[in-house]
Design a protein that fits this description.
46% strand, 2% helix
Length: 168
């Protein structure tokens, strides 16, 4: 079968809301002053789910090599019990391919987003997603749930997905 083509748009809070939330300091209100006014605290990005079924928060760094955006991409995974947050370091960009679905990804909900180097995102627990697709070599801080039992379901899409970056 021919691959499905998705147009990857720049990530935005409203379009990404069904899958998770976007951390974009440039789109936030100025924040509350802290540290004697030398910093501002920006809150309200969403509630992390990291402790279900005996899980604990885990902070990791994923060192990623750049990959061509177009793919094809065919493997999606999900973590039913925990959120996953990806924060690029040093401006690394990435592509996130996501889908909704109960028992398997629903092809009608497949979407692709480009995450800028100054943005981050959190996936809702249970959101189907491709593993990290870095568009630039770089490190990504990842905050996720860790537990004795692995919470990762993996499926192969019946039709591969190709991604085309939205032209400016």
């Amino acid at each position: 079968m021919s691959p499905t083509t998705l147009i990857a748009r720049p990530i935005a809070a409203d379009a990404f809301a069904p899958y998770g939330w976007v951390v974009d300091p440039t789109a936030q209100a100025p924040g509350a002053p802290i540290n004697a006014g030398t910093s501002a605290r920006l809150d309200g990005f969403g509630a992390l789910a990291l402790t279900a079924d005996g899980g604990a928060p885990c902070l990791a760094v994923f060192r990623a090599r750049a990959q061509p955006a177009q793919g094809p991409w065919q493997v999606l995974e999900r973590h039913r019990l925990g959120t996953q947050t990806f924060v690029p370091l040093a401006g690394a960009r990435c592509l996130v391919v996501v889908a909704l679905g109960d028992d398997a990804p629903d092809p009608a909900t497949l979407a692709a987003f480009v995450v800028g180097g100054g943005q981050a995102f959190t996936l809702h627990a249970g959101t189907w997603h491709h593993g990290l697709i870095a568009l630039d070599d770089g490190d990504f801080v990842v905050v996720e749930r860790r537990a004795a039992t692995e919470d990762c379901e993996v499926v192969h899409l019946p039709v591969p997905v190709r991604v085309q970056l939205e032209s400016a």
